[in-house]
Specification:
This protein is an alpha+beta fold. It is built from 6 helices and 5 strands; from the N terminus they run H-E-E-H-H-E-H-E-H-H-E. The two termini are 25 Å apart. One of its GO terms (cellular component) is nucleus.
């Protein structure tokens, strides 16, 4: 929720059409202890999640940055959405963690291609903390800007991602799946 929404906000400001999603069973946020996360269904409004954590422990969730993050998220969109239930089709899907990349690939693999429309699925690993989310948003924005400048992304993407990987010193995973 932190990494993808930071990138979402950044890309929208740059004028890109963007959607962001989760892929897990539920929205999981850190709780008062590592073994007791706060879990919410997808579709629960960010306002409700924010108010729930505010009631649980305003000081703790302010100090750990969750209230700030949720405040940002609710200014971007009303609630968290689950990728696997979306009916939208995309040209490019970017994930910020290899586990999520694997879930997206698995979802496409479980579906029969109906439209024969390719989608580039790309992963750039970003640690889940505020500083790395901000750095990751800049990196993703740079990468998306380069993609948008391509006249033929299908032919240019391998070289583009290779160059980008060398520049940012982070491994990039990518593949093409079909809707």
């Amino acid at each position: 929720m932190n990494r993808s929404m930071e990138a979402h906000a950044f890309l929208v400001k740059k004028g890109f059409k963007v959607k962001s999603f989760g892929t897990g069973e539920k929205v999981k946020l850190p709780g008062a202890s590592a073994d007791r996360p706060n879990c919410y269904e997808f579709g629960v409004p960010y306002d409700d999640i924010y108010n729930d954590l505010l009631e649980k422990d305003k000081t703790y969730y302010t100090q750990n940055g969750l209230l700030h993050m949720l405040d940002r998220n609710r200014r971007i969109k009303p609630y968290p959405e689950k990728f696997q239930v979306s009916t939208e089709r995309f040209d490019v899907i970017i994930t910020c963690e290899e586990r999520v990349y694997d879930q997206v690939i698995e979802w496409f693999g479980s579906k029969r291609s109906v439209y024969n429309q390719p989608v580039h699925v790309i992963n750039i690993d970003i640690q889940d903390n505020h500083e790395e989310a901000t750095i990751g948003a800049f990196l993703i924005s740079d990468m998306v800007t380069k993609m948008a400048q391509s006249d033929d992304l299908d032919n240019d993407i391998d070289e583009l991602l290779h160059d980008f990987e060398a520049k940012c010193h982070r491994p990039i995973l990518n593949c093409i799946m079909f809707y």
